[in-house]
Amino acid sequence: MTTISEQTLNASGAIPRVTDFQLSRRLAEVAEKLRRQHSDPDRVLAVITESAVANVPSAEFASITTVLQGKFVHSAALSGEPAGHCDKIQEQLGEGPCLESAVEQKTIRIDDMDSDTRWPLFADAASALGVKSMICFQLYVEGINFGALNLHSTRTNAFSEEAESIGSLFAAHAAIAFSTAREEQQIRAALTSRDLIGQAKGMLMERYNLNSQAAFALLAKLSQDTNVKLADLAEQLVIDAAKSTG
């Protein structure tokens, strides 16, 4: 089955219009891919970038850029080396379309990298890499952590209004899937931490003849005195106990 990005150009040099049925079917296929990876946030991000290149008209490369704590730039997922290079350039400059899209929560489109004046240093460097058009979609916001989905093309004026519309739908769809995966990961981590704390508490109860409340209080004090998170301290106690009995 031919993906939207692989459709043959018509006689005028434009990509044929995507029908509502084609778009619905593509989004359904992407949703199924994301569902299969729902428990792994990193894999979800990889599926998002791969599917974006396959299904947003004219997209050749893609990245998901995260801005952590409002300032640390990271490429969370990549599809194509030029996308990674563009993220790296913005990290070094501290500015660019991906960063502004992520933090300002808006869609940004660059139709001609050589004539865009908003980020001249970035535009010059990206153009030298062969990237001539870009479109960036805000993907998620978690406190002071931000993310954007960025699509790149080697052609000028590559992304039409239709491509922007499809990309917006895709980004919204992907953001929900990513948020769900993160929540599942956090729940699993919380359950794991609770189990470890329970094991460590049980060890202290047995070793020092303490009740449950006193054992937890001892764990909490050790955590505070050593400046180590309670779950990490509990994990270390369990590991040390396993080594001593092994």
From TrEMBL:
It comes from the Bacteria. This is GAF and ANTAR domain-containing protein. Coiled coil: none annotated. Keywords: Kinase, Transcription, Transcription regulation, Transferase. Residues 177-238 form the ANTAR domain. The keyword Kinase applies. Gene3D superfamilies: 3.30.450.40, Winged helix-like DNA-binding domain superfamily/Winged helix DNA-binding domain. InterPro entries: ANTAR, CheY-like_superfamily, GAF, GAF-like_dom_sf, GAF_ANTAR, WH-like_DNA-bd_sf.
